[in-house]
Specification:
With 144 residues, this protein is α+β, with helices and mostly antiparallel strands. 17% of the residues lie in helices and 31% in strands. It folds into two domains: 1-41; 43-114, no CATH class. The strands form three sheets. Strands 8-7-6-9 form a four-stranded mixed sheet. A three-stranded antiparallel sheet has the order 1-4-5. Strands 2-3 form a two-stranded antiparallel sheet.
Length: 144
Amino acid sequence: MKKIRAKYAGTCRRCKKAVEVGEQVYWATGKGVQHVECHDAKQPADLKALNDRTRGEFDDFELVPEDGTVWLWGYGTYKRGSVLAGQHRQARLDSFDSLEEARAAYPSVKVRDDGTVNMHASHYISLPDVPPSDFDPMDAGEEW
């Protein structure tokens, strides 16, 4: 990352707080900005290991209890070179049988415990059981 003065107002990718125009920050193409203090702060070992394992592809992580399983979610943005470049990215990276097990593995990762439904699960695309009236399997050789 390169140390610069912010040209635009924005949000620190590490602490999620505001970055003001003219403030000294660290910046990298495709990664955004970080406050100098956030950049220089020692990263906890579990987060460093996660970033190393995922090659820095995710900016944030969250433990999400869901139907008896605790999922480790990673959030980020698709990088340049991907057909999805610039779009939001999220992925399940690990799973645990209990919150205690998840917290032991990733003590620095925040836990979503507000009782909300996991927004990620509600965004899966589903198809109806019956094809639309204009569907013809001969068009592409596909079946419903």
